[in-house]
Amino acid sequence: MSKSIEAAANTLPSKQQYEWQTTEFYAFVHFGVNTFTDREWGEGTEDPAIFNPTKLNADQWVNAAKSAGMRGLILTCKHHDGFCLWPSKYTEHSVKSSPYKNGAGDVVREVSDACKKGGLKFGVYLSPWDRHEKTYGSGAAYDEYYKNQLTELLTRYGEIFEIWFDGACGEGPNGKKQEYDWKQYLEVCHALQPNAVTFNVGDIRWCGNEAGQTREAEWSVLPMAASSREFVFRDVQNTEDFDGAFRARGINIDSLDLGSREVIEGETKFIWYPCETDTSIRPGWFYHAHEDGKVRPLDELLDIYYKSVGGNSSLLLNIPPNKDGLFHPNDVARLAEIGARLKEDFAVNFAENTEPALSREGETDVISLKLADEAEIGKVVIMEDIKKGQRIEEFEIYANGGLLYKGKTIGYKKIAVLKNPVTTGCITIKITKSRLLPEVNFVGIY
Description:
Elements lengths: L2 H7 L5 H7 L3 E5 L3 H5 L20 H10 L4 E7 L28 H12 L2 E6 L13 H17 L5 E3 L17 H11 L4 E3 L5 E2 L14 E3 L21 H4 L12 H4 L5 E3 L2 E6 L17 H11 L4 E6 L10 H17 L11 E5 L2 E21 L7 E8 L2 E6 L6 E21 L5 E6 L1
Parallel strand pairs: 1-2, 1-10, 2-3, 3-4, 4-5, 6-9, 9-10
Antiparallel strand pairs: 7-8, 11-12, 12-15, 12-16, 13-14, 13-15
Helix pairs in contact: 4-5, 4-11, 6-7
């Protein structure tokens, strides 16, 4: 085994990354002045007087998210237009200048409180691009402004599980772009919310698209050179660690293959850099009345769930509130349908009281499970003990003497959806390719 493969096999997640991975499925909520202008990107010139969601009910958002089986919620506290959903003392372009609750409202407080009451984790989105703030594009002055707002969000609203950094960088009101000082921003995050993960820079990465499309093989272990922002990892100090052949091959974070043996060969430094899949329940990210009939079909959303949560990623599904401050009934109904189907699909684990038999056939590790009774199965869930790394590269599932499923990576969780359900009393899983010994800590049969 090469030094590259061995080093990759021994790369482990941080405690923050591991805890985040267990969240699996959570809500994105895009809400702000765009909701009232019927736009996706605001210009920063919007009058705060347009923001007045007279029926806002954060408990409704939380209950709808929970009905789908979600475990967290991330709110767009400030989008690119610069309008703040909390009364920031660093700008007048916020809810305090709006008619909402006569200027005494704090949407971030309402949502964080509702999450706490409902048992959901709470996360914040704070756009670095600010099309309203006059210091944007000026360098250090805007960095200070942004850090001040970040500090407000990370000190006023309790425990934060994820801080979502958008990579968008356009012109501000002075026609200039800002070069974001990510190092400073992350120092604030680590100091004030040490248990939170940061998206896009730091702890977790983007899947590479907003359609919910996923890779067949998703690796959490990548060469350090996979990131173009050398300083963003908690435990990396020396940017020379990022030199390697990875970039020279033209591979970047959006490539379909980020971690195969062929890709990592010759690399010596690795990072645990897991994937988040984000997409919206509708065509747009903010609410548009003309999309009320375009909520994505249940089967499409379930397919995204099985391929993301069930493909070593997490799923961040956006649900946009309307002008009243409520999720539309169509979205609420679809979320409930997702939750009902997931409960149905995973109601009974036929392997719950089954002790797996472990054996080895040449270079292949074999896991055999004999069920108490024959059952019709349609899904097999396999989980690696990622506290010991991600190692499995290829596996196969057999029953009744035939091959049911052939897959690649497993990682935190793999949901193998069988094309055709099969009735059987025994399942055999063969790990046909692995980096060091595989460490499987859960098998479920449904």
